[in-house]
Amino acid sequence: MRPTRHALTGLLGAAAAAALALTAPVNAQAAQASPAASQSPAQAAGSPQLLAKLTHSQATSLFRSAGITWTSSGGCSDRNNPTCTSFQGLRSQTANGAVTLKRASGCAVRLTGGTETGHASGTYSHWNGYKLDMSLSSCLDSYITGAFTSIGGSKWKSASGNIYYREGNHWDVTYYNCGGC
Question: What are the boundaries of the signal sequence (predicted)?
């Protein structure tokens, strides 16, 4: 039987319960309907658990609970301002993918871009909630280039199919799924 939210809050604390409440439905669905690793991103995108969108507040709560930090060159979170870093409309699978990366790598993860305007368009875009930008760091750089498969053009692909693209001063990461969460 699943514990009540009140019981979780008492046992885990408000922050942990909030993070659990955000991820539990996604993880439960993923366990029942997880797309096979061999599926294309388009096939995986049709799965219901991949379509859940988060508010900025939900995403930052999840990131905070996981120890993921973020920065904004404009010091703001307005999705319609390109100097802000916003997570409004971020797919839950994308947020969970960043958490999976943090846990698997043991590295600090600092987000520098989310769903704000100003990025390239397309189906698997920042605006549509599929991408996050991350700061470069020796730990994260070593983990990505050592654990994932190089596919050329400064891109690495994880076993789950997510793409890590090293751009000039950051990682541009496309999450088709949560990376095994």
Answer: 1-30
